[in-house]
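Predict fold of Alcohol dehydrogenase-like C-terminal domain-containing protein; 120 aa.
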Amino acid sequence: MTDGGADYCFECIGLASLMKDAFSSSREGWGKTVILGVDMHGSSLNLNCPELLRGKTVVGSLFGGIKAKSDIPLMVKRYLDKELRLEEFISHELGFQDINKAFDLLLEGKSTRCIIWMDK
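Predicted 3D structure, encoded as tokens:
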């Protein structure tokens, strides 16, 4: 289907077995596997060393790769200075009693981000 493997593979579940599968599915020579899921069982990740030597890579990304100590205060400042307009990403605001409607909007592809208000 990919004629040799995918250029980029993403693992988002947090299972070492799927991390290995994602790595095995990447293209030899330049395939990149990005690990996003967190393995809660503390399992080891066993990879085929010759595949690494032939150019496949594995990287991890916790919280999108930000450096929390320096990046979060910077993002907060940009938000407060109106440089970062997060409100534009909110498509709906609903009360908790309408939480099922929020899921329906998501499944219908009509919601980008929905805020659920607990006190509405």
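The beta strands are 8-11, 32-35, 57-60, 92-95, 114-117.
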